[in-house]
Amino acid sequence: MSSLELKDFVWVGVIAVGHAFQLGHAATEVAVLRRKYKINPPTMDGPPDFLRAVRAQQNCLEFSVPFEIVLWTSAAFCHQAPTAMLGMVYLYARQRYIKGYIEAAEKRVPPFWLSIRALQGLSVLSITGLINVVLREYAGVNLVAMARERIF
Length: 152
What we know:
Blueprint: H1 10-37, H2 48-77, H3 80-103, H4 109-139, H5 143-151
């Protein structure tokens, strides 16, 4: 097995840091609306735009663990380039989701599904990479080498 180096994770690290900032931005949106409407914690009730902001933030938090798991697993067992591209799609979709949800609940739907597709793509890369490593290390079968032989 080839050894991994830090350069193999640079772009995925950028995506992970961007994700952290995005989660912070969602929390800030809620905090701004708390101040605007004078809603003190732990109260979770208020005007519709506040409730939508809270829900958008919570949904992003709910998806953050699965996203980070498949992001890093895909980078480690597959490749950082497609991983980072799908990570960018996910962050873009989530940003549109947050903004859209705060404006109107129905505006959250298309970006939500785009983020789900990005998660599915990362999951496929993760599983494919893991299967390839297991087959290569424990069965002597290299799927990547076999695919290269057939394509080229």
